[in-house]
Design brief:
This protein is of the alpha+beta class. The protein contains eight helices and six strands, in the order H-H-H-E-E-H-H-H-E-H-E-H-E-E. Helix 1 packs across helix 3. The model has no long low-confidence stretch (mean pLDDT 96).
């Protein structure tokens, strides 16, 4: 299995019950939600290879994607080039719109407040059976090492799960913005680390 497909499967499992996925795919069967979430994160992983980086743990239990600041947010040209512009067809128009409407406010805030040499941790997922074993820390540290090697010096992420806030704080991130996104009714935390 190619690395981005494996990463998509890992993150699809990790994000299956994530608040934003439950919102976007409300009304879909469990099997349909699983299929569409997997497809979404496979696309994210393939796109990250083009515009940042992708790391999968050697035990294939965790994966992380990141984007360099010059590619964050992607924008229409990169979405078309990477194939992400086809997501409305593969996920459905309504779920795609829900995802975009939710992500736009926190990502716009990050872009406005980030410096020129920022790196953005786009997605981080660990399979359910491997959670609590330090894989998130390992993946974040490796991604930051990779981003530093490309000249990036500040690191950003966002999360919609309060449990993740605590995990990321233990790894040196601090909450710099917390908003309740109007379109979804879901809280989003922007976090930063030098």
């Amino acid at each position: 299995m190619q690395n981005y497909k494996l990463a998509g499967a890992i993150m699809g499992e990790a994000f299956y019950n994530y608040p934003l996925m439950l919102h976007a795919f409300k009304g879909y069967s469990d099997a349909e939600r699983a299929k569409r979430v997997n497809h979404l994160y496979t696309s994210v992983a393939a796109t990250a290879i083009m515009y940042g980086g992708l790391i999968v743990t050697p035990d294939e239990q965790g994966a992380i994607t990141w984007l360099s600041g010059k590619h964050f947010p992607l924008g229409l040209y990169r979405e078309i080039k990477s194939g992400m512009a086809t997501l409305p067809i593969k996920l459905g128009l309504k779920p795609t719109n829900k995802l975009v409407q939710h992500d736009n406010p926190p990502e716009a805030w990050i872009r406005k407040n980030a410096g020129e040499k920022m790196g953005y941790i786009w997605t981080l997922g660990v399979r359910t059976a491997a959670q609590g074993k330090g894989l998130s820390r390992q993946l974040i540290e490796q991604s930051i090492t990779d981003m530093r090697a490309q000249g990036l010096s500040e690191f950003w992420l966002k999360t919609e799960d309060s449990k993740n806030v605590t995990i990321y704080q233990k790894i040196g991130f601090e909450v710099v913005n917390e908003i309740l996104v109007k379109s979804s009714g879901i809280k989003s935390w922007a976090m930063w680390r030098e």
